[in-house]
Amino acid sequence: MTTLQGTDTTFHHADEHHAPHGWRRWLFATNHKDIGTLYLWFSMIMFLSGGTLAMFIRAELFQPGLQFVYPEVFNQFTTMHGLIMVFGAIMPAFVGFGNWMIPLQIGASDMAFARMNNFSFWLLPPAAILLIASFFAGGGATAAGWTMYPPLSTQMGIGMDLAIFAIHIMGASSIMGAINIIVTILNMRAPGMALMKMPMFSWTWLFTAYLLIAVMPVLAAAVTMLLTDRHFGTYFYNAAGGGDPLLWQHIFWFFGHPEVYIMILPAFGIISEIVPAFSRKPLFGYASMVYAAGSIAIISFIVWAHHMFATGMPVTGQLFFMYATMLVAVPTGVKVFNWIATMWRGSLTFETPMLFSIGFIWVFTIGGFTGLILSVAPIDIQVHDTYYVVAHFHYVLVAGSLFALFAGFYYWAPKWTGHMYPERRGEFHFWNSLIWVNVTFFPMHFLGLAGMPRRYADYPTQFTDFNMVSSVGAFLFGLTQLYFLFFVVLPTIRGGVPAPAKPWEGADGLEWTVPSPAPFHTFEKPPVVK
């Protein structure tokens, strides 16, 4: 139990300290809450952009034949949907949560490097403009898939170059954000806030930040070599000049697999905050949860070639990466077990944050099991690049990361806005999201097992029924998220029932000791934790 000792609880904040107003507040923001808000709005805009592309994809796939777009434009949509969702929606959303909550959770006055925090955000809009503008460049956007494999990526038009520059800029933003989070957590915790007393969300973000610093330069090197292959006569990935197209896959996936955990570890942290609060019990096995998160981060570096079973690697390589991949299931299983054990015989209530958390545990476990199945090399070779893989990673990233983000929004929105969200609308959002996400992605398992390849605009007639079901589910899931924006988020920001400092009875932590909404300057005197 976190308690405060010797803390001045009379708050003298924004009015006395002249919080900035108008456009200057946002353009020159150095306050972690304002920057967190900017990240969250940016990710929402990109989520809607990437979601619109998903609607075009599912509309085209509603029935066989070419309905709306040529295959090359369809592949531009699939590629840009992936890039926008990964680099523009999911990652910045978690950085927004981290900016908002980490200083509040550890009793820090702000992030360690406030101006760098501002810079790391304002790199993102130009990068997003580059990505989206690539549709209007000569030859259109890149259509090489979000993984950008050569030789396709070396043959694309100028849209590929714009994507490379956008990824460079977003990577620089991620590295700066990660440095900020590490320094903040290690150096700015309140007196008495030992590392093993830190909230799980701060712990998972600490591991995530180390992962970002380790793998973002790897991606930068990969796309730089791609750029020089395209324009400066090098042959890194060109077999005709002594290069190797598979080199790209090794480098990309050495970034790409830790990237998956970059997008799920903060989600684990959010769920680990919410489940104890609504179970009215401490988190079961706190220390094991910390070690499990660290183990996941470490193991993520030795599994990259499970994306490459179909490339003809030796059997010994297949065995190593197969068993290493299966090993990830152990610490992940520890987390799922501990969440269930936390709920066991707890005094549970089922407000929207808890609903999304339980929904997350269920659907993420499905995604985890299909990942285990794909770790078996002979099976993976059969279903590689089919819709089975699409189903797997959407269960992890949509039903996983996105559900955790929704859970976190409903949990912390009262602290951010000073208003309680409309509970009935939140529940409506949850049930529709849960139903339609399964209607959308579960049939894709069957499509993949039957042999339907991904990234194709057309398909044989036998795949029609499942594609129709999937497309209907996708449209209804998309409409549900518009409902979330217009009937939950905006009304909560504008007004509603005033939120107390601690709206959730079982919630514990320093963020619930400050008023709602959190003041512009949070902890003028560091709280003392005992």
UniProtKB/TrEMBL annotation:
GO terms for cellular component: plasma membrane; respiratory chain complex IV. The chain crosses the membrane at residues 38-59, 79-100, 121-142, 162-186, 207-227, 247-271, 283-307, 319-341, 353-373, 393-413, 434-452, 472-493. It comes from the Bacteria. It catalyses: 4 Fe(II)-[cytochrome c] + O2 + 8 H(+)(in) = 4 Fe(III)-[cytochrome c] + 2 H2O + 4 H(+)(out). One of its GO terms (biological process) is respiratory electron transport chain. Belongs to the heme-copper respiratory oxidase family. This is Cytochrome c oxidase subunit 1. It comes from Pseudoduganella umbonata. The lineage of its organism: Bacteria, Pseudomonadati, Pseudomonadota, Betaproteobacteria, Burkholderiales.
